[in-house]
Write the structure tokens for this entry.
Amino acid sequence: MEMTVEQMALDERKFLHDLSNQLVVAQGMGAIVMRSLSELEEGSIDPKIIERLDKGNKAIDKMIALIKERRVTLHSHSK
């Protein structure tokens, strides 16, 4: 059975939705960890750890933005 373009678009939208949900969970958990670390006494944690966590959080934010852009593209093509 051959898949239609419409079905492929619907499948991609579902995939993006599921992926986005997981990224939002990761984003939230990263924010909780960052907030907890920021409440610790200064100097009690290696600043490189904070820097790496911040870099990871920024990467997650960028992925979420890319997914949002892709959703807009899919919606505009499916109308």
In short: The chain has a mean pLDDT of 90. Residues 3 and 25 are 32 Å apart (CA to CA).
